[in-house]
Amino acid sequence: MTYEDDSGAPGRGAPNGQGGHGQPGPPSYPPYPQPQPHPGGGPAPAAQWPPPPPPPVPPRRGGGKVATVIAVVVLLLAGGMAVALSKHGASGSDGSGGPAAQQSGPPANALHQKWQTELPQSHVRGNLSGLPALWTTERGPVYADDNGVRAFDPETGKKLWTVKTPKGASEVCAVAPQPNSDGVGAAVYDAGGNDCAFLVVFDTETGKTLWSKNLSSGYKTVAPHVQVSEDTVVTGIGGVAAYSISNKGAKVWTLYSRGRDCGNDIVWSGAYLAYSSSCSDAKPENQLSIRDLRYGDVWKFPNEKRDVEEVLGDDPLTLVLTEQEGHDDPKRALQTYTKDGKPDKTFPLTGALKDLQFGATTTVDRDSSELLSYYDTTSGMAATDLKTGKVLWSKRQTRQVGLEDGKVIALRAPKAPAQDPTLVSLGLRNGTEESRGVLYTPKHTLQMVDSMSAGTWGDTLYVIGNPIDDPQGQGKLVLRAFDMGR
């Protein structure tokens, strides 16, 4: 794996197991454009390499899928994505963003709905672009779909701001899974001709654009993956590259292939980029490289034949590696790494682990070293100990929406029609369930948990989606705020 730094000189990463910034080296070749990943999640067919070599372009897979639970939780629920960050007290009454629904005959354990506000119908339904996305931040919820990126007052539901569409761009077509710890977010707009290539980096506190850059390169990008690190934005628009947040979008590095005849798999989170390659014209033929996006350290693992499939967590760094060659049923495994980049635990995804399903709800809790993921189907969830590889517990019809004081905050689907979902707390180690209250609405419009996005901040739960009495989305996209209490 080679990188071209901001001076334009190609460089190579540090030796295997050692950290360090890239040193100058001989020129290398950008990966030939691969077809965009398809919604099924599998790799697209590898393309052939024609002369002359074209500019760098996205990897076979559409980028990393990760969520870090230090202060961030990501939720993807069939129709959307939600992000829960850290703590923020929220009090308030029904606001002008929309009065709370009239509650005739709510149960005694119904959560108080603080407000609701209707939004325009969205035409995106949970895909590789990360849309739609709901982030919860200190200043209130931020929602992104093809209608734009906008924030709402946590007390009233009034719209606070909308990120300005750059000149020459149209609708939002991709978004980062979450902002960074400084509240910097990133969205990508259509640059024209269905080329999702106009990158906009903005402050989630004010909605102000910090900088924008049209990255159109002649190769149309459909659903680019984008992540915001501490001081860089890493995208797969036209090629995998990093851009400086503080230096007005100056390019920091570009990822290049190790040779002309390579199969490459590249995934990344906000903290790490993992790149597996198999090259007939490079030595070693097979190699896995991992780059720390915060500090620039690069670890290389020569002769690693497994392909990288996903980044599941950053602390500890947890990957899914797949052994494809010679296997009708690919052998998949969880692989963790130490802080200095050495392989730590390997757990084959067999037995109970075979039922783990990964997506944007997948999180790694640093303190307990637990992996939280879908289980069996995307309607269930489980906790796995990353020290032992044991599934600690699993739940059906339950979706994670946040973490709080060593417990998982989740929504449990109703057991029958005309009922409401229940907010529950689950013990991280044992899954012990405690009811927090019911998300009551008079017409039980929130019973379709699979089609909602949700996130928590402090004592407030935000839920967004099409009500069940408007299943076709005829203009009824409703954002609600509930008081979770304690």
Defining key terms:
486 residues, mainly beta, Methylamine Dehydrogenase, Chain H, seven-stranded antiparallel sheet, six-stranded mixed sheet, 39 strands, 44% strand
In terms of quaternary structure, the protein is: single chain
Shape: globular
The CA-CA distance between the termini, in Å, is 49 Å
Class based on secondary structure composition and strand pairing: mainly beta
Mean pLDDT: 80
Poorly predicted regions are 6-55, 57-103
Give your account of this protein's structure.
With 486 residues, this protein is mostly beta strands. The protein has a 7-stranded antiparallel beta sheet, with no helix packed on it. Strands 4, 28, 29, 30, 31 and 32 form a 6-stranded mixed beta sheet that branches. It has a single domain (2-33, 48-483), classed as Methylamine Dehydrogenase, Chain H. It is globular and about 70 Å long. The chain is built from no helices and 39 strands. Strand 5 and strand 6 form a beta hairpin. Residues 6-55 and 57-103 have low confidence and may be disordered. The protein has strands spanning 2-5, 10-12, 23-24, 68-69, 73-77, 80-84, 112-119, 133-137, 140-145, 148-152, 159-162, 172-175, 184-190, 196-203, 209-214, 226-228, 232-235, 241-244, 251-256, 262-268, 272-279, 286-292, 298-302, 307-314, 317-323, 331-337, 343-348, 356-357, 363-365, 370-375, 377-385, 391-395, 398-404, 407-412, 422-427, 433-438, 453-457, 460-465, 477-483.
